[in-house]
């Protein structure tokens, strides 16, 4: 597994506040990486340091194998939290301009722009000025400007804010596709459902400090116990076996249980099929929301 | 293709395509021509309404010639000065006529003292408005002339003899150029120097403000963060400044070409224009002047752009920008005012020193070159100093630009600014 981004001992202090404590991160290539944290946790500061918008006080940042921001500018895309774009330019012109600035040939830039314009259903707006678009449409344009040059990595600060649910889904689909094509996607958000459905790995930061990080599965495994839900028909006793199940909550047709230590869900399923007819068997992931809130609370911060 | 070049092209095209640019390019020369022609036209038309003037002529001989001398008419053929003698038998003419003026019954009145011809009493003119110096001069000159002529008539000298004596010399001015040739010059050099100075002055106001605004827009539109992550700040700034400079140069080039075209092709223009044309034709600048103008224009433009960019990066709102714009334009204003001194005394110590200062050079050195070509070493030194300070101004403003662009909120104070410069 190669690394797209490596952050080592990076910190930033503003006059009174330590915005980011020395922070280490590692983002695997061709994955979707979520940077989570409550408001003011230091997500945007971290992202801005990665983008060389502000200089860290200490530490090194290696993005796409380079520590020199000038070497990698054309290979990354950036969607700042502070959205904004040349309002007087027309949609297509703007997209072509940004592609060309990242060294995409003009003809190719035009082709890319038209494809993305179709994808986002902006065709009838392509020759309109940005200032005449609605806020949501301007957001789409800005998202396209971030990915139009097929960067190796994109860094998206709160990419879903400002989109309606339909477009949130569209953006999600596109991000998954782009990852499929090998793009590394780093995004910050505090929308937990999004992270659970999208991210391969996460890092949770609070008050400028990393609280936990790693692949989503591992984080969940370490931080929460899985619950098992079963819908059944018949007379069931398997969940009363204390060697299998630590605790349960049965309603006669539906039972939610927490497996005993060292027991795989497979064993419980086997025990269950011997006794009853099963219409649903589900492993309940501990929700990231739960983990997030619990962890932040443990740290003494407010979620 | 270099990113700076892409930014430059974009900036240039964005600005040249606007309606404002087209209108400005067309309208400004029209406005200038209007300003030049208008006084001449107005002098013929005269905005003054015809008015009655009463003459209290105690000399008894001056009324008729005065009325004849002030016989101008307006376009409708009405006399501007309708002179009439004062009614006899007024006990206190000044007081009575003053009342008439106050009540707008008459436009004004003249009082010519009894011993005016002997030089022992005064002449006076009363009117509501005596601020029109042009009219006052005219009246003074006319009266002086009449009195002088009357005195001569009353003397033993023959009028023809007197006319011979009094004939004006009509001093002509010729300009000796470096090569030893001379050309007739009736104020054309002054005109040309003024035009060069004014063009720079005007452009810096129009386009300097544009560089400031284009920087400020990165902040107000919040595009700065995206741009800085896409191109190096210096490329962004350079592209923007040079793009605007390109717009300014395009406008200048259009004007110069149009001017050249009119000068070579435009004989037979209607009415008042032809006199102006003739004057401009006389004043046509030499190729060296035009080259110098563009060199000083470009260098001066870049120098001031650096200042404007820094200002644009420091402020957060249009209002703040306007507050800081004035101090930033001060040097141009000063050099524009100094221009008249430079025309009068182009090789004086003060002018020489001032014209070498880079902030003043674009106008003052250009004026000196136009009026009286200064020594070559001074021109070269001046250009060298200008280039050095352009580099300095760009370096400094690039640093302020880099940090200032991403700062929102309060305007930095001086220590903060120094930190930016070191940090950038």
From TrEMBL, chain A:
SUPFAM superfamilies: P-loop containing nucleoside triphosphate hydrolases (SSF52540)
Matches recorded under SMART domains: AAA (SM00382)
Top-level lineage group: Bacteria
Domain ABC transporter: 5-232
Family under the similarity heading: Belongs to the ABC transporter superfamily.
PANTHER family given in the database record: ABC TRANSPORTER ATP-BINDING PROTEIN, ABC TRANSPORTER ATP-BINDING PROTEIN NATA
The protein's name: ATP-binding cassette domain-containing protein
Source organism phylogeny: Bacteria, Candidatus Eiseniibacteriota
Automatic annotation (TrEMBL), chain B:
Statement: the UniProt record of this protein carries the keyword Zinc-finger: no
Domain ABC-2 type transporter transmembrane: 19-398
Transmembrane spans: 21-45, 191-212, 241-263, 284-304, 324-343, 350-371, 377-401
GO CC term (a single one): plasma membrane
Superkingdom per UniProt: Bacteria
Record keywords, A-Z: Cell membrane, Membrane, Transmembrane, Transmembrane helix
Main location: membrane
Protein name in UniProt: ABC transporter permease
Source organism: Eiseniibacteriota bacterium
Origin organism lineage: Bacteria, Candidatus Eiseniibacteriota
């Amino acid at each position: 597994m190669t690394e797209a981004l490596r952050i080592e001992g990076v910190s930033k202090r503003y006059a009174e506040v330590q915005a980011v404590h020395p922070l280490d991160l590692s983002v695997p290539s061709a994955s979707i990486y979520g940077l989570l944290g409550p408001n003011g946790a230091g997500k945007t500061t971290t992202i801005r340091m990665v983008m060389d918008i502000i200089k860290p006080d200490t530490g090194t940042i290696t993005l796409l194998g380079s520590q020199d921001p000038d070497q990698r500018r054309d290979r990354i895309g950036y969607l700042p939290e502070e959205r904004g774009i040349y309002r007087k330019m027309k949609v297509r012109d703007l997209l072509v301009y940004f592609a060309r600035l990242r060294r995409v040939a003009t003809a190719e830039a035009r082709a890319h722009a038209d494809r993305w314009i179709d994808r986002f259903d902006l065709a009838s707006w392509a020759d309109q000025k940005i200032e005449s678009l609605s806020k949501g449409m301007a957001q789409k344009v800005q998202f396209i400007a971030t990915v139009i040059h097929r960067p190796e990595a994109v860094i998206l600060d709160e990419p879903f804010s400002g989109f309606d649910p339909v477009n949130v889904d569209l953006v999600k689909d596109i991000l998954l596709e782009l990852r499929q094509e090998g793009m590394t996607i780093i995004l910050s958000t505090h929308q937990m459902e999004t992270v659970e459905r999208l991210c391969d790995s996460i890092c949770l930061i609070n008050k400028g400090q990393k609280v936990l990080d790693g692949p989503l599965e591992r984080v969940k495994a370490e931080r929460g116990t899985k619950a098992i839900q079963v819908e059944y028909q018949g007379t069931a006793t398997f969940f009363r076996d204390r060697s299998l199940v630590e605790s349960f909550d049965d309603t006669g047709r539906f039972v939610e249980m927490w497996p005993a230590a060292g027991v795989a869900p497979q064993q419980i399923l086997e025990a269950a099929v011997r006794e009853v007819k099963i219409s649903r068997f589900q492993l309940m992931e501990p929700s990231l929301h739960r983990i997030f809130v619990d962890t932040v609370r443990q740290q003494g911060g407010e979620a | 293709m270099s990113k700076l070049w892409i930014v430059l092209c974009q900036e240039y095209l964005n600005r040249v395509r606007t309606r404002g640019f087209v209108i400005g390019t067309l309208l400004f020369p029209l406005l200038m021509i209007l300003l030049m022609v208008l006084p001449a036209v107005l002098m013929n038309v005269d905005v003054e309404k015809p008015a009655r003037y009463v003459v209290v002529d105690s000399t008894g001989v001056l009324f008729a010639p005065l009325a004849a001398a002030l016989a101008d008419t307006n376009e409708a053929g009405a006399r501007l000065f309708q002179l009439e003698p004062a009614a006899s038998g007024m006990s206190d003419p000044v007081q009575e006529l003053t009342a008439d003026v106050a009540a707008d019954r008459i436009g004004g009145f003249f009082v010519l003292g009894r011993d005016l011809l002997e030089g022992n009493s005064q002449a006076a003119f009363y009117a509501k408005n005596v601020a029109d110096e042009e009219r006052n001069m005219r009246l003074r000159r006319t009266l002086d002339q009449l009195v002088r002529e009357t005195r001569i008539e009353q003397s033993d000298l023959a009028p023809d003899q007197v006319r011979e004596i009094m004939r004006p010399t009509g001093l002509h001015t010729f300009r000796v150029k470096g090569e030893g040739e001379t050309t007739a010059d009736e104020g054309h050099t002054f005109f040309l120097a003024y035009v060069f100075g004014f063009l720079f002055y005007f452009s810096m106001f129009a386009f300097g403000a544009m560089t400031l605004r284009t920087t400020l827009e990165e902040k107000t539109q919040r595009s700065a963060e995206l741009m800085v992550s896409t191109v190096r700040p210096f490329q962004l700034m350079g592209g923007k400044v040079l793009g605007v400079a390109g717009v300014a140069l395009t406008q200048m080039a259009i004007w110069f070409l149009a001017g050249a075209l009119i000068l070579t092709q435009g004989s037979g223009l209607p009415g008042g224009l032809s006199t102006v044309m003739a004057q401009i034709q006389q004043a046509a600048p030499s190729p060296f002047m035009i080259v110098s103008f563009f060199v000083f224009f470009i260098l001066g433009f870049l120098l001031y752009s650096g200042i404007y960019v820094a200002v644009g990066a420091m402020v957060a709102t249009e209002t703040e920008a306007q507050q800081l714009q004035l101090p930033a334009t001060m040097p141009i204003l000063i050099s524009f005012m100094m221009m008249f001194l430079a025309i009068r005394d182009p090789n004086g110590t003060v002018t020489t020193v001032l014209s070498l200062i880079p902030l003043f050079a674009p106008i003052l050195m250009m004026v000196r070159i136009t009026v009286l070509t200064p020594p070559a070493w001074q021109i070269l030194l001046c250009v060298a100093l200008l280039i050095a300070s352009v580099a300095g101004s760009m370096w400094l403003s690039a640093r302020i630009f880099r940090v200032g662009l991403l700062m929102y909120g309060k305007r930095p104070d001086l220590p903060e600014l120094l930190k930016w410069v070191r940090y950038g």
